[in-house]
Specification:
Number of helices: 18
Radius of gyration: 34 Å
Subcellular location: Cell membrane
Number of strands: 10
CATH topology of the largest domain: ABC transporter transmembrane region fold
CATH class of the largest domain: Mainly Alpha
Number of domains: 2
Distance between the termini: 72 Å
Keywords: ATP-binding, Membrane, Nucleotide-binding, Transmembrane, Transmembrane helix
CATH architecture of the largest domain: Up-down Bundle
CATH superfamily of the largest domain: ABC transporter type 1, transmembrane domain
Shape: elongated
GO cellular component, one term: plasma membrane
InterPro entries: AAA+_ATPase (IPR003593), ABC1_TM_sf (IPR036640), ABC_transporter-like_ATP-bd (IPR003439), ABC_transporter-like_CS (IPR017871), P-loop_NTPase (IPR027417), Type_1_exporter (IPR039421)
GO molecular function: ATP binding; ATP hydrolysis activity; ATPase-coupled lipid transmembrane transporter activity
Order of helices and strands: HHHHHHHHHEEEHEEHEHHHEHEHEEHH
Bound molecules: adenosine-5'-triphosphate
């Protein structure tokens, strides 16, 4: 029922008019064989017995059926082409909506999600092709039932004819299950091949790939992955085709047996024989269509199951609590634990990020700093413990509203191939236009003035290509567009900047945060440069997923622990 609703909804979204025409022409092709069979008996008997009345009635029925048979395919071809054009677009739009609307991003990193998403994308066109299924399926069953009753009227034993569909149906089900298992088994290989392809043609990776001379290896690896995927699916497809054809071969045998039975009966009129030939044909056609439809239903159910699974991920328990306009207490992490799969990354984190403060998080590579940030932005949920935003569990908050009140600059920033103005404005689309220019000034992206069209310069391969540091300054400007976010996160957003520029930038942000402390904004900075983080109100040291030290720069130096040691090393390096 849920699948039927999905298909009808999809058909309607493709276009109500087209959907209705497509349904009508498809249905007509199922009705015409029955109409033809019913007209044949009065026509043949009318001709033999010179009964004009029956002859005309039968003739009209046969003529109508033949007209439908001749005209319907023209409409069917037109509607099918139009449906195909639009349906893959509409299905893909729906999938994209589901995949990107999910409140968290963790599903993008789960192999199960990626495999299902890939299978769904591959089979999405099938959803569009099957929008008439909810109407066709009951119609074909009715056609089979009517034909069977009419046949049973001729010879009761002929009512057994449709039963031939049962073993064939079972065989077709086995074939589909085989195909489905193979698709899921092949999905990781396909995903690998796709990633290798994208990597090999990506301009960002081109230089490193050429310098390392690994393009041949990438091609070979791509070829291995596709071969593995094809081997799995081809074997399964071949076996399922053999199983399916055994089922189909039962039909001609049954048809021949039914006709012999009627021909051997001396009481049968020529009209009876004609009716039996046509009805047995209609029954066999209906039974094979049911078989065909059952295959489609199983395939569609597999695709729909992926779709519903994705939909469930996208709408998982959304929080509804309103987000405060400004923080008064701050954000508290209580005994927070997080693992990627079964790999623990954060353990027993207790932290109080006070409202209006600047907090720096330091720690060596892989300590868990970025993961902590992902938890703070609600991209991931902790496996245990809680994150309280002014006393309210982050999981209970309306995440969309919460994200609209965050600002963030990341080490892996996006290079938006837009104009400079647009690439910065996406940091806060509802903010007034002058926020964009203010943010660019704050990020000291002075190079913008030297670009050919200033703020309106198109960036990227179709316009002006920027240096790594210039792209990064635009990413920082993007993080500064929102005037009073609840939480500003700067996760190594300035790695391409020199240490002095980074320190000056953070000092400016910290001064601004202190000046506007009344708005309760929390600024979190992650940096490997101790010269930058020293001005933070609180410095948190993460080691192997645990908070080992926290305090001000002076407090941590006095303590003489990891921070003091690392600070001493870096200060020595710069002096
Ligand atoms: N998506 C992921 N799936 C599985 N493991 C991950 C994922 N992201 C990070 N990890 C692992 O979690 C650990 C912490 O990673 P994280 O990125 O939080 O560290 P970090 O302190 O920010 O490191 P860096 O300073 O290098 O940016 C690392 O061991 C990393 O391998």
């Amino acid at each position: 029922m849920k699948t039927a609703r999905l298909l009808i909804g999809l058909g309607w979204e493709i276009g109500p008019g087209l959907f209705l025409v497509y349904t009508a022409v498809t249905m007509s092709s199922f009705v015409s064989p029955l109409l033809f069979a019913l007209g044949l008996r009065p026509l043949v008997d009318g001709v033999i017995e010179s009964d004009q009345h029956r002859m005309i009635a039968g003739g009209i029925e046969v003529a109508v059926a033949l007209t439908v048979v001749l005209i319907a395919p023209i409409g069917y071809r037109w509607a099918t082409v139009r449906m195909r054009e639009r349906s893959s677009f509409v299905s893909e739009r729906r999938i994209l909506r589901l995949a990107t609307n999910a409140p968290q991003v963790e599903h993008f990193e789960r192999p199960e999600f990626l495999d299902r998403l890939q299978s769904l994308r591959r089979d999405a066109a099938g959803l569009g092709d099957s929008v008439t299924l909810p109407f066709i399926a009951p119609l074909v069953v009715a056609q089979l039932a009517v034909s069977t009753v009419l046949l049973a009227n001729l010879r009761p034993v002929l009512a057994l004819l449709p039963l031939i569909a049962i073993p064939a149906l079972w065989l077709s089900r086995c074939a589909e299950q085989l195909r489905r298992r193979a698709e899921l088994e092949a999905a990781p290989h396909r995903r690998l091949a796709e990633q290798l392809f994208t990597l090999s043609v990506s301009p960002a990776a081109a230089q490193e790939i050429h310098v390392a001379s690994v393009s041949q290896e990438l091609v070979a690896e791509h070829s291995r992955a596709t071969k593995n995927a094809n081997r799995i699916t081809h074997t399964a497809l071949f076996t399922s085709a053999v199983i399916g054809s055994i089922g189909w071969s039962l039909f001609p045998v049954a048809y021949a047996a039914a006709l012999l039975l009627v021909l051997h009966d001396s009481a049968a009129t020529a009209g009876d024989v004609a009716l039996a030939i046509a009805l047995a044909g209609a029954v066999i056609a209906a039974a094979t269509r049911i078989l065909d439809l059952a295959g489609s239903v199983l395939r569609i159910r597999t695709t729909a199951e992926h779709y519903f699974w994705l939909s469930e991920q996208a709408h998982r328990e959304p929080g509804t609590e309103p987000v405060p306009h400004r923080l008064t207490h701050g954000i508290e992490l209580r005994n927070v634990t997080f693992s990627y799969g079964d790999r623990p990354v954060l353990a027993g984190i207790d932290l109080h990020l006070e409202a209006g403060r600047t907090i720096a998080i330091v720690g060596e590579n892989g300590a868990g700093k970025s993961t902590l940030v992902k938890l703070l932005t609600g991209m991931y949920r902790p496996q245990s413990g809680e994150i309280l935003v002014d006393g309210v569990d982050l999981a209970a908050l309306d995440l969309t509203q919460y994200r609209q009140k965050l600002s963030a600059g990341f080490q892996d920033f996006v290079r938006y191939q837009l104009t400079v103005r647009e690439a910065v404005a996406v940091g806060g689309l509802t903010e007034p236009a002058d926020r964009t220019t203010q943010a660019i000034a704050k990020a000291e992206a002075t190079f913008v003035d030297t670009l050919p069209q200033g703020l309106d310069t198109q960036l990227g391969s179709d316009g002006v290509e920027l240096s790594g540091g210039q792209w990064q300054k635009l990413a920082i400007a993007r993080a500064l567009v929102r005037p009073a976010p609840l939480l500003m996160i700067l996760d190594e957003p300035s790695a391409s900047l020199d240490p002095q520029t980074e320190a000056a930038l953070f000092d400016r942000l910290a001064t601004e945060a202190r000046a506007g402390r009344a708005d309760g904004r929390i600024t979190v900075l992650i940096s490997h440069r101790f010269s930058t983080v020293r001005s933070a109100d609180l410095i948190v040291v993460l080691e192997n997923g645990r908070v080992t030290e926290q305090g001000t720069h002076e407090e941590l130096l006095d303590r003489g622990g990891t921070y003091a040691e690392l600070y001493g090393l870096q200060a020595g390096g710069y002096s």
